[in-house]
Write a structure and sequence with these properties.
Strand 1, helix 2 (42-58) and strand 2 form a beta-alpha-beta unit. By secondary structure, this protein is α/β, with parallel strands linked by helices. Strands 1, 2, 3, 4, 5, 6, 7, 8 and 9 form a nine-stranded mixed sheet that branches. Helix content is 45%, strand content 19%. It binds D-malate. D-malate (MLT) binds next to helix 2, helix 7 and helix 8. The site of D-malate (MLT) has 15 residues, from helix 2, helix 7 and helix 8.
Length: 326
């Protein structure tokens, strides 16, 4: 009889331990995704679509917290310092690969501060202007920039933001300095562009598509190698004579360094599910972008891209900011 009782007792203990483990299984409370740019901008748009889908897959709320400023380097730092437990993540873009080169006193090294979860989407950028800017096509805009660039205001999300990186490439190609006006994100910058307070932006289709379509702002060109299906009549910047001009905002999801592998794997699987979510796919298409293919959505693929992008942008930025020979 006692053997039966022992077995029953053991079974109960294991079962309750199992329940306890199940309750402790990740995630057992809401997850926060830090977007290091203001709400209402392009990165916030990507994040909220992905977060909504991941919430239903993971069975826990996935919340988006906007921490704008300094091109995204401040909010990215907050994510880098967060507990590596899978409950705080970072969603941003190519800018993370430039922070170490642009901010010499950065209190963290992005290349060592994060564990990759996966790539999300590579968003095209568009050269856009306030509705009443005199230039009516990319050639007229580039001529105006060459002649009067130092009188034209250019809205960005701060040094290291992709809007600012685009401006840096443009200034360097045209040998002209624009009046850069930094914002906590291109969401608020777009408000000023719509109001005519600033002249120009180079911003992602996830923020400009609607306003280009309605004519509330002028679209001049796309910054991708090929034209964008959503705007077949917009030439590439390269077509307008600035050879090899290309920049896109590849967006990714990271976790703080040291996040447990099983947690990262669960996040990666939920991210891939989100990239197959019809709502995500349809909204991305309306905004001029597409989810990356599964092969690109893996942690290893992001590791490889991130390392090569840190190298590429460090070298590029070194050229732009290298002190001129005396
Ligand atoms: C944003 O969401 O505000 C943008 O991604 C910022 C930027 O231009 O990098």
């Amino acid at each position: 009889m006692s053997r039966l009782l022992t077995a029953a007792f053991a079974a109960t203990m294991l079962q309750s331990a199992g329940v306890a483990l199940a309750q402790d299984a990740y995630p057992n409370r809401p997850i926060t995704i830090i977007v290091p740019a203001a709400a209402g901008g392009p990165s916030d748009t990507v994040a909220r679509l992905v977060a909504q889908s991941m919430s239903s897959t993971l069975g826990q709320q996935v919340l988006v917290e906007n921490q704008g400023g300094a091109g995204g380097s401040l909010g990215s730092g907050a994510a880098a310092r967060a507990e590596a437990d899978g409950y705080t993540l970072l969603l941003y873009h190519v800018g993370v690969a430039t922070f170490a080169a642009l901010y010499p006193d950065l209190p963290y090294q992005p290349i060592d501060a994060f564990d990759s979860v996966g790539l999300i989407t590579e968003v095209p950028l568009t050269m856009v202007a306030r509705q009443d800017l005199p230039a009516n096509d990319i050639d007229q805009l580039l001529t105006a920039l060459r002649e009067d660039g130092d009188t034209m205001t250019f809205g960005t999300a701060g040094v290291g933001s992709v809007s600012d990186l685009c401006g840096m490439l443009l200034s360097n190609a045209l040998d002209t300095e624009m009046v850069v006006v930094p914002y906590p994100g291109t969401g608020p910058a777009m408000t000023d562009l719509l109001g005519g307070q600033i002249d120009l932006m180079c911003d992602q289709t996830t923020n400009t598509a609607g306003n280009i379509e309605t004519g509330a702002i002028k679209g001049f060109a796309v910054t991708t190698r090929e034209r964008v299906p959503l705007f077949p009549d917009l030439p590439t910047v390269a077509e307008s004579g600035i050879d090899n001009f290309e920049i896109t905002a590849w967006h990714a999801l990271w976790a703080p360094k040291g996040t447990p592998e099983d947690v990262r794997q669960k996040l990666s699987e939920a991210l891939v599910t989100a990239l197959h979510d019809e709502t995500v796919i349809d909204r991305f298409a309306q905004l001029g972008t597409v989810p990356v293919a599964d092969g690109q959505a893996t942690p290893d693929a992001l590791d490889t891209l991130f390392r090569s992008e840190v190298e590429r942008w460090t070298q590029l930025i070194g050229q732009f900011t290298a002190p001129t020979a005396q």
